[in-house]
Write a sequence for this structure.
């Protein structure tokens, strides 16, 4: 089995060759085989309003979020400083005062 690159749009591993093109069956994106594969650093994480996030940014929570396995809630307006971008379902690793280390999804924050 050949090692085909991941889809540059959705990062799916299910890409396949179709003539001179590579195709992603999950999102339907097509690109030429000769295209230079994107590096992992090129991944852009955006907040709920479409602003690009970077390591070290400060963000504000835009929705009450229940903390899994606890009765605690992260309230709307909570500022989170010095975020770290991560791979996976939860894009942001951070520490929240009074709660501790946790992961957040970028769709529930906005850049402060």
């Amino acid at each position: 089995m050949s090692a085909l690159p991941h889809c540059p749009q959705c990062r799916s591993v299910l890409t396949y060759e179709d003539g001179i093109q590579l195709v992603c069956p999950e999102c339907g994106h097509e690109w030429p085989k000769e295209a230079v594969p994107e590096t992992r650093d090129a991944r852009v994480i955006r907040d709920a309003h479409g602003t690009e996030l970077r390591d070290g940014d400060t963000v504000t929570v835009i929705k009450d979020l229940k903390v899994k396995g606890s009765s605690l809630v992260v309230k709307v307006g909570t500022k989170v400083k010095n975020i770290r971008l991560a791979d996976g379902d939860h894009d942001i690793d951070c520490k929240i005062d009074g709660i501790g280390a946790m992961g957040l999804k970028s769709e529930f924050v906005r850049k402060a």
User: Anything to note?
Assistant: The longest strand covers residues 92-96. The mean pLDDT is 88.
